[in-house]
Amino acid sequence: MTNVVIIGGGPGGYEAALVAAQLGGAVTLIERRGLGGAAVLTDVVPSKTLIATAEVMTTMRGAHELGLRVGDLADLTDAFHVDLAAVNQRVLALAATQSTDIEGRLRSEGVRLIDGVGRLYGTEHVVATTDEGEERLPADIILVATGTTPRELPAARPDGERILNWTQLYNLRALPERLIVVGSGVTGAEFASAYNALGADVVLVSSRHQVLPGEDDEAARVVQQAFERSGMTIVSRSRAEAAEVVGDEVVVHLADGRTITGSHCLMAVGSVPNTAEIGLTEAGVQLDDRGYVTVDKVSRTTARGVYAAGDCTGVFALASVAAMQGRIAMWHSLGDAVGPLDLRTVCANVFTAPEIATVGVTQVEVDAGLSNALGVMLPLHTNPRAKMRGIHDGFVKVFCLPTTGIIVGGVVVAPIASELIESLSMAVRAKLTVDQLAQSFTVYPSLSGSIAEAGRRLHTHSAERRAGY
Ligand SMILES: Cc1cc2nc3c(=O)[nH]c(=O)nc-3n(C[C@H](O)[C@H](O)[C@H](O)COP(=O)(O)OP(=O)(O)OC[C@H]3O[C@@H](n4cnc5c(N)ncnc54)[C@H](O)[C@@H]3O)c2cc1C
Ligand SMILES: NC(=O)c1ccc[n+]([C@@H]2O[C@H](COP(=O)([O-])OP(=O)(O)OC[C@H]3O[C@@H](n4cnc5c(N)ncnc54)[C@H](O)[C@@H]3O)[C@@H](O)[C@H]2O)c1
């Protein structure tokens, strides 16, 4: 039997445990907080459950335009009020159920679960510290999947009541009157969008000229405009230096001397890896200058027999990537067929209103000359289904290689972009051409009709390019 010891029970750890058990390993997983990890208990699952409620409010906001009335109200959201205590109770219950489901699945596959803190003791043992004491576990293979923790600014430490990080938001019993969100990365933008839709007065402090600096520029512009139109205040090119509670308010101090006052403040200024004091460097595992574990494309670290997966590696902070890195680690270490991690086919979604979904080659890569892909962008406002549903914002963008027409990337900005991106994700993975995309049937009328239409437009462009125009 090969002894596999996994530290961390998030998607990187638990998906690896399932593969290792399937391949006949004797698997032990050590988790200090709960199965499913931060992904299930504090990050992905709670935030997307909260956003599901916010989406209903966004739909209600557009209901008047579609001819729906409640009394004399011009805005149907005025007919609702958000019972945040009930929303958060649902959010936390759903996360707990998801965690229990994962625990049940791991147990049924024969994985030994230890409720405690794990650390490496060289490369052949892991020490688990539990309420009962310490246990030294022999390990032929170790997987480190310890994730990250919210980053804190020294002068803006969360108190859990008025200054919060995203893991503490679900303790709120009532909607904040005025929520200051510091940081306009994906986390900040998603919560700003959700709380804005739920009816809070939201101020978003953004260090750049535009929100979502890591996303497609045109897509981020659409989201920023939608935020501003729906009443959110965006304070651009501004960095928060400090936050303090003064009476019943929070005062956020910006680097340029201005202050912003609100009832609550959410700090969403990034994360730091959970890699300190768990015996990594002592075991020969190299960390980069920010503390992330250095891994290759099959999740190997610099120490023999020690693998790492997920956010602690600093490779695309996504649950799907963490899970794939964890599976690859086990396929590789336990001798199954395995291919290297291919980041060119990863698809991701920002759950704002509207959503931004992306796959493959990006506009930044094209503009920088790193890819010679051709792209077309079709705004959704001419799409018949979008008109019917009152969707005014959004677009579809498709990138293909000029000579072959092979699809290499795409962006969808729409209310359900996370679902619409699948056809482009499949096309990128299967190396389909724009002609194959164009010739596949789409339902009429449908938003996905615009994706096929982009394929038809690219047929013309790539034909012209081939002919040397
Ligand atoms: C607000 C928010 C929303 C997000 N939404 C999405 C989304 O919609 N889609 C998406 O794909 N990604 C999303 N992400 C990213 C996603 O949460 C991460 O990519 C994912 O959680 C990474 O999984 P992981 O297994 O690496 O780590 P985690 O999920 O962080 O799990 C690591 C686990 O290890 C445990 N641990 C750490 N150290 C030890 C130790 N020494 N001993 C024992 N246990 C330990 C921790 O307690 C934790 O439970 C979101 C992130 C945030 C912050
Ligand atoms: N839907 C999803 O898949 C999803 C959701 C949330 C997070 N994530 C992933 O998690 C990772 C982390 O995202 P994130 O948004 O938490 O962190 P991030 O590091 O990407 O963004 C933090 C932002 O805060 C800004 N910032 C830092 N200090 C500041 C200050 N003092 N004042 C104002 N702004 C400041 C930074 O410039 C940056 O834009 C990303 O890779 C993201 O993809 C994914």
TrEMBL record:
Gene3D superfamilies found in the cross-reference section: 3.30.390.30, FAD/NAD(P)-binding domain
FAD/NAD(P)-binding domain: residues covered: 3-326
Keywords: FAD, Flavoprotein, NAD, Nucleotide-binding, Oxidoreductase
Domain Pyridine nucleotide-disulphide oxidoreductase dimerisation: residue ranges: 349-454
Cofactor(s) required, per the database record: FAD
Tagged with keyword Ribosomal protein: no
Residues that coordinate or bind FAD: K48, G118, D311
Pfam family, one: Pyr_redox_2
InterPro entries: FAD/NAD-bd_sf, FAD/NAD-binding_dom, FAD/NAD-linked_Rdtase_dimer_sf, Pyr_nuc-diS_OxRdtase, Pyr_nucl-diS_OxRdtase_dimer
UniProt superkingdom: Bacteria
Binding site for NAD(+): G183, S184, G185, V186, T187, G188, A189, E190, G270
One MF annotation (Gene Ontology) recorded for this entry: flavin adenine dinucleotide binding
EC number: 1.6.5.2
Cofactor: record remark: Binds 1 FAD per subunit.
Family: Belongs to the class-I pyridine nucleotide-disulfide oxidoreductase family.
Protein name: NAD(P)H dehydrogenase (Quinone)
UniProt gene name: lpdA
